[in-house]
Give the backbone structure.
Amino acid sequence: MLNERSLTVHQDCDQCPIRHRAVCARCESDELERLEEIKYYRKFEAGQMVIWSGDKMDFVGSVVSGIASLTQTMEDGRTQMVGLLLPSDFVGRPGRLTAAYDVIATTDLVMCCFRKSPFEEMMLRTPHIAQRLLEMTLDELDAAREWMLVLGRKTAREKIASLLAIIARRDASLHMTTRAQDGSVAFELPLTREAMADYLGLTLETVSRQISALKKDGVIVLAGKRHVTVPDLERLMEEAGDDTDGGMLV
Amino acid sequence: MLNERSLTVHQDCDQCPIRHRAVCARCESDELERLEEIKYYRKFEAGQMVIWSGDKMDFVGSVVSGIASLTQTMEDGRTQMVGLLLPSDFVGRPGRLTAAYDVIATTDLVMCCFRKSPFEEMMLRTPHIAQRLLEMTLDELDAAREWMLVLGRKTAREKIASLLAIIARRDASLHMTTRAQDGSVAFELPLTREAMADYLGLTLETVSRQISALKKDGVIVLAGKRHVTVPDLERLMEEAGDDTDGGMLV
DNA sequence: AACTTACTTTGACGCAGATCAATTCCGTGG
DNA sequence: CCACGGAATTGATCTGCGTCAAAGTAAGTT
């Protein structure tokens, strides 16, 4: 799967996250119309498989609402999440026949899809789309590599802080956070502890313990299990060991 | 940096790994000539920095000979290699101003470069190049994500086996391995123990210990510190915990 | 041949995070 | 309202890998 770093939120239609004009601001408008014609929606329930690794992929698309995850699994069951698809993120691989990872609906999910072959044909006709997709894919590659540093070198506490910082940043850019006058940021955790563990290469117990520790140290405040308030985003990012000012991740 | 998954080895010129006709088999030949015109070579010694993270990138190119690594570093010095550039791999990010990672010559290195702006102009003129680069970048993304599984979920022994399997496979595709009649494969390890550790998210001591263990168990045979013989590639891949038949990595 | 320097191996020990095991929390439906 | 079940917490213990330290190896230099 290609994923994330959307074609950005549709301005004209709050149902569909793909702002076609962002894909290709310089294309002839009839191409854009054609894109509109081959569009359709798919819904998934939390926990449902969207795509199995190795399956034939006959569509590309993007997330309208909900969260999906890209996951790799070893025969013995160990799993690693390799990407998180938030609303506006792109899924699919122009030019590829089969899916490389499992895609799972983490929450209830709505996707806006395009049949792959017409999309690809259009890509061939309109060069700016390939250029835009290249741009997006490079962003994803950056994100994946930033995540490699997290997985390979960070401590459990730093990993949790990194993930929270990323979600806070991403949610902020989608205006999903509450930002109080004192600068604190609040958001809803979209992942179970287990999903976080799979993303971070940890166990769910370690995730739980580190969240408790961050809470005890006042880095975050929890209301219920899922509602997180970050009093000081700077502090959280220090905890994450982040040099990267605001490197875009996921 | 974009990297790896080359524009493949030049057929006409063994000096230059970029087979321009592979980039764009369908372009007009004068475009290819133009690419030839803006080409130049750069040499680096082992250990030299090719590019600093954050620096302005004014060229793209590919590795002719030697090995380079893409590395991320935290302020406290922890480092994670996020990519390995072998001969024929591509470096550079069309459409990006600055480098996202350090690029370091792991061995003596020769690169074939193109000044970035003419290359980009050409990319705009010849759509197949953007499509080819998209293809390559998607491959890299797959590789990065496969590596996330290695970093997040595999044991030290599996990590080492994974790395050796990848190098063996990569070298084989470049005809750099010796393949004996009994099916064993032999190659030269291009990395120090420390570099391997940085790639695998381990310490050099653990790398050394696991290599000794694999040797003791007959999975590999060492002649000197660097020359590796793999009697049974299947066995090595089992040790790597590899489901992926032959997923391209690095 | 002796010295230097960088790389590698091996050992002893400690700790971060995994594993195993009980509760507790909380949302949902009867 | 209670009861049920998945999610989360917390505790006790184990272990793989990191850390610190020392010694071995190989290639280049004088």
Notes: The first helix of chain B runs from residue 20 to 23. Residues 192-194, 204-205, 208-209, 211-212, 225 of chain B lie near DNA strand C (CB under 10 Å from a C1').
